[in-house]
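request received
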Amino acid sequence: MTDQTTVAQSPAGAAEPAPPPAKGAKDTRVDARPKNNRAWWLVLPVVVSVAFTAVIPLMTVVNYSVQDVFSPSERIFVGLEWFREIARDPEVRGAFVRTLLFSAQVLLIEIPLGVAIAVAMPRRGVSVSVALVLVALPLLIPWNVVGTIWQIFARGDIGLGGWAINNVLGVNFNYTLDSTDAWLTVLVMDVWHWTPLVALLAYAGLRSIPQPYFQAAQIDGASAWATFRHIQLPRLRGVLTIAILLRFMDSFMIYTEPFVVTGGGPGNATSFLSILLSKIAVGQFDLGPAGAFSLLYFLFVQVLCYVFFTVLTKSGR
Amino acid sequence: MRRLPWARTVFWLYVATLMLPILWMFGMSIRPNEDILGSFSLIPERVTFDNYATFFGETSWYSSYLNSIIYTSLNAVMSLIVALPAAYAFSRFRFAGDKHLFFWLLTNRMAPPAVFLLPFFQIYQSVGLFDTHLGVAIAHMLFNVPLAVWILEGFMSGIPREIDETAAIDGYSLPRFFIRIFLPMIRSAIGVTAFFCFMFSWVELLIARTITSVNAKPIAASMTRTVSAAGVDWGLLATAGVLTIVPGAIVIWFVRNYIAKGFAMGRV
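response:
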């Protein structure tokens, strides 16, 4: 029993943020771990569950992508024909450029904005709890409800946002007719929806910076900007890597919100890759092209994520 | 630490802007439909709770609300059970292919959900999981298990290995050590992870809608019912919207203290 109390005391110490590892310290930690192939038994449940939810479905998609399916009994092997067709399809290319542009805009707006909000967030007192809960609230709203909120809010006749732009600013704004307005609505909606995630991650990163860093900066007479640039920002590398990756992935796969607000329109102004894909897969039930489309889509997200990850983690060393 | 003098004001202005669309939807849920479409007014002229009465008066509405809560909770529990030992393995041991496996797990988080719609529909139907809570909970493990492993691994790596070794010397077997000592130590990590699983499962609609029809239909899918031949029932739509925010708000209130502390320890 005495052993238990000694061990049980350590949680209090463990609840403190771990001291920041020095450069290269991570590698020594990796080396210190014992090699034990029986650890595979511990990861087996994960492998099985992911196999059922991801690998088997993905294999089905691969199967579709190389066949022309007329009916369950009638299929012809077509090789890479669908891949060629999808890669040449002007509609797919248009959606690809649109999605890429959207992701770029999302990252350029949300990352700096999120960091700024995190810096401005209260640090102590009851206001911390209130701020955290309110900032996190948009993240907990089902995605189609987010769409519904903005569908209502941005309407010129019944929504506060659309009404204010039309009647207070005097600009003619209608997201169901004008493609620029539709694009802006979807972009503003995404910024509203997801900047809180970046802000929370950055806030957590800022909180983990030990106080002596700031005291040292104060003694040196560093300006607020210099403190941010040379102490806070470098410390945020880890959380910002995650924020950028998550925001890239999710904005590149965005479906529900624009589908609810604009349905991809007007015309195809907000028809992103996922909207086009589900139109082909579920709407037209073209299994072959949809399968090939899915795989190319998946591959692109993976490659870009890998590039981001490598660049972001290597550039600091 | 130092803060700029106007930071506080700017921050609360941002929060106010953030709340505006939500408050607007709430305002719409307590107006009669004629007022919504009739004349534009900032403050509701007539306040009514008819929409809420409709929502809780109809089985199909509140049962789909319960459906969402059931499969979301189920998913959080299952994801944690599966992810905890795996995260421990990744943080404590080296084994053949560990790095590849870790990255491969993460790549599943990168799969566009639209990719999985067709196969999910067919597979879940053929194995009898179609339109069940368990089916949706399993399907959502697609993106929650990799995330849970990722977050938990970060937390666990922050706990010194000496604790494991001390416990082993004291005669604790691995399962007993894990349950009696290790799990209580990473309470906050489990809280944060459960929160993320809950969040991502609660907000997802595309997959949940595809593999359900009646019995496990999520609340979010029921909302499309407000569109009928007579047009959109904006008041009822807004009411359902407001009610879907409530569980999330409750969960986040409980984990609010873990968020900052927990994030900082973990890799997220």
